[in-house]
Design a protein that fits this description.
This protein is α+β, with helices and mostly antiparallel strands. The chain has six helices and eleven strands. The strands form two sheets. Strands 1, 2, 3, 4, 5, 6, 7, 8 and 9 form a nine-stranded antiparallel sheet that branches.
Length: about 220
C-alpha cells in the first residue's frame, strides 16, 4: 500500500528577541510537489553558484508560504506520519503531517517580509513580527527530508514538476507576492482578486529598479 503524501510541515522557531516572538512559536508550511521541487532547485542552484564563487553559501528569496502560529491545544493532540504525538517530536526536527491540522484563525500571527533561505543541504524560513524589528527564523529542514517528502507524492505529480521551467527570478516572485499575497485576519494567502493601489505600483517600481535603473530623464525619440 502506498504511503500518504506529506502535505504540511510544522517547524519550531527562534526569535532575535529572547523575551518576545509575537506568539510565532511554530511555522506551518504547506507542501506540494511543485513547491518541494522549487526548494530542491534552490539548493542545487546554491551549489552551482558556490562552485563559481566560493563566497556564496546560501540564497534568500521572498516567500509567503508559511503561516506562523502560537502553541495551542490542537498541536498537543495531532500525530505525525509515524503516529507519534507532535509535541513529542524533538525540538529542531520538522513535524511531518499527512493532513492540514486546521488550526483556528486566532492562532495565526501577523508577520511581514517573509523569505525562504537555502544552502546546499538545508532550507529554512524567516519573517518579521508585524510592525517590529523582531526576526523569526524556523529550524532547518534537510535535503534528505525534502527528498522523502518528494518521494511520497504520486508519480504523476512528480513527473509534472519535471516539465516545469526553473523557478522564477526572486524579483519576479517578489512582484508576484505584491500583486497576489493578501491577508485575512492574521493569516496570509494568495488572492487572485487582491485589491491594488498606487502603493502597490510604487513597491513594484522599487523592485524593478534594483535590477533595471530608473530613467534619469525623458528623452523623446527624434523623427
Amino acid at each position: 500500500m502506498s504511503k500518504p503524501p506529506i502535505t504540511h510541515l510544522v517547524i519550531d522557531t527562534s526569535s532575535t528577541n529572547e523575551d518576545y516572538n509575537g506568539d510565532c512559536d511554530y511555522a506551518l508550511v504547506p507542501m506540494t510537489a511543485v513547491y518541494v521541487a522549487d526548494l530542491l532547485w534552490y539548493m542545487a542552484e546554491v551549489g552551482r553558484l558556490h562552485r563559481a564563487d566560493d563566497s556564496v553559501y546560501d540564497l534568500e528569496c521572498w516567500d509567503g508560504t508559511p503561516s506562523y502560529f502560537r502553541f495551542n491545544d490542537r498541536l498537543e493532540a495531532i500525530r505525525d506520519i509515524y503516529g507519534d504525538l507532535a509535541v513529542d517530536v524533538p525540538r529542531g526536527e520538522p513535524i511531518l503531517l499527512a493532513n492540514d491540522p486546521r488550526f483556528g484563525e486566532e492562532e495565526f500571527q501577523r508577520v511581514e517580509c517573509q523569505t525562504v533561505q537555502a544552502s546546499v543541504d538545508e532550507v529554512w524560513w524567516t519573517a518579521y513580527v508585524k510592525h517590529t524589528n523582531v526576526r523569526i527564523e524556523t529550524a532547518r529542514v534537510s535535503k534528505k527530508t525534502l527528498l522523502k517528502i518528494q518521494d511520497r507524492f504520486p508519480e504523476e505529480e512528480r513527473r509534472h514538476t519535471g516539465k516545469r521551467p526553473v523557478p522564477p527570478h526572486p524579483a519576479v516572485r517578489h512582484i508576484h507576492d505584491l500583486l497576489y499575497l493578501d491577508m485575512q485576519g492574521k493569516r496570509t494567502f494568495y488572492n487572485p482578486d487582491k485589491i491594488r493601489d498606487c502603493h502597490t505600483l510604487a513597491q513594484i517600481a522599487e523592485v524593478v529598479a534594483k535590477y533595471i535603473p530608473r530613467p534619469s530623464s525623458v528623452k523623446p525619440d527624434r523623427r
